[in-house]
Amino acid sequence: MAGRKPLPTHLKLVKGTARPHRMNEAEPRPVVAVPAPPDHLDEEAQAKFTEMAEMLARHGVMTELDAGALARYVVIWRRWIEAEQEVKRRGHVVKTSNGNIIQNPFLAVANKCLAQMHQIESEFGLTPSSRSRIRMAEPAEKADPFEDFLTRGRKK
């Protein structure tokens, strides 16, 4: 299918772009949850995963379906930490075996990780800019059967 990928309904509601006539009534509704960290993560990464998942769940963003994206974030975060430690240990520039001075290769790794982390953070609404585009949906009022009848009648 050509064109833009459709946004899930819960994201449309959060962003404030939901239009009743364009809602997919059959779409599964994800449940806010704090999934267990994947086994392949080391202890420090599992702790970061749990910390982030709990924070995202408190804000209504984390579901079981998001565990893979959060695991990728944590793996990249761990790689960034390791690269930053090497940059701190060796400095921003290093000497090659030929005596040439070059940028520390770990600095490039750290910068790449930062860019990847920023991309995933934007998906979860963890940056000021991405948060400014999010609007929380108004709490649903008690359904009015007559209003439902009128609304459904217009769709036909």
What does this 3D model show about the protein?
Pfam families: Terminase_4. This protein is mainly α and 156 residues long. The chain has one domain (9-139). The chain is 53% helix and 4% strand. It has six helices and two strands; from the N terminus they run αααββααα. It is elongated, with a radius of gyration of 22 Å. The two termini are 26 Å apart.
Write the layout of secondary structure elements.
Blueprint: H1 9-15, H2 43-58, H3 67-90, E1 93-95, E2 101-103, H4 105-124, H5 128-132, H6 145-155
Antiparallel strand pairs: 1-2
Helix pairs in contact: 2-3, 3-4
Quick structural summary:
It comes from Paenochrobactrum gallinarii. The chain is mainly alpha-helical.
What labels describe this entry?
53% helix; two-stranded antiparallel ribbon; mainly alpha; 6 helices; 156 residues; single chain
Mean pLDDT: 83
How many helices? The count is: 6
Task: Tell me the quaternary state.
Answer: single chain
How many strand units? 2
Main β-sheet: number of strands, strand sense, barrel status?
2 strands, antiparallel
Identify the overall geometry.
elongated
Radius of gyration: 22 Å
> Helix and strand string, N-terminal first?
HHHEEHHH
Count of domain modules = 1
Please state the structural category. mainly alpha
Report, as a whole number of angstroms, the end-to-end distance: 26 Å
Percent strand: under 5%
Strand order of the largest sheet: 1-2
Helix coverage percent: 40-55%
Low-confidence stretches: none
Region (Disordered): 130-156
Biased composition (Basic and acidic residues): 135-156
InterPro entries: Phage_term_ssu_P27
Organism: Paenochrobactrum gallinarii
